[in-house]
Design a protein that fits this description.
Elements: H1 2-14, E1 18-22, H2 32-53, E2 58-62, H3 73-80, E3 84-88, H4 91-98
Parallel strand pairs: 1-2, 2-3
Length: 115
């Protein structure tokens, strides 16, 4: 959660409208309660920034299962609390949702067990 707070500080400093989290190398299998608590925390802190600084950044995460929940529980928790956030499997989908051109042309690399 400290990393998210540090990211929000940078968002405020640079008035970033779009935030990309590339978590493809992260590992973990959070429980539903952990997903809930992170989504609630991220939304609360983001909404604080919106109120204090007058702009609403959009967040896009790229994660692989099991860290990325196919049921989108944590994402839904954050969205239901006002955060503009989406979680993706592929980096290029993240750029597309944010309406940005990727710095280089990414390729979809599908690993074992990927759709």
């Amino acid at each position: 959660m400290r990393h998210f707070l540090e990211t929000l500080e940078a968002v405020v400093q640079y008035q970033a409208q779009n935030v990309l989290f590339d978590g493809r190398t992260l590992k973990g299998k959070p429980h539903d309660l952990e997903r809930f608590l992170y989504g609630e925390f991220a939304a609360k802190e983001t909404m604080r920034v919106v109120k204090e600084h007058g702009f609403a950044p959009r967040f896009a995460y790229v994660l692989h299962e099991p860290l990325r929940d196919p049921g989108k529980f944590g994402e839904n928790v954050a969205v239901n609390r006002g955060m503009n956030v989406r979680v993706f499997e592929y980096l290029e989908d993240e750029f597309e949702w944010l309406g940005l051109d990727p710095p280089i042309a990414p390729r979809r690399l599908r690993g074992v067990g990927s759709p």
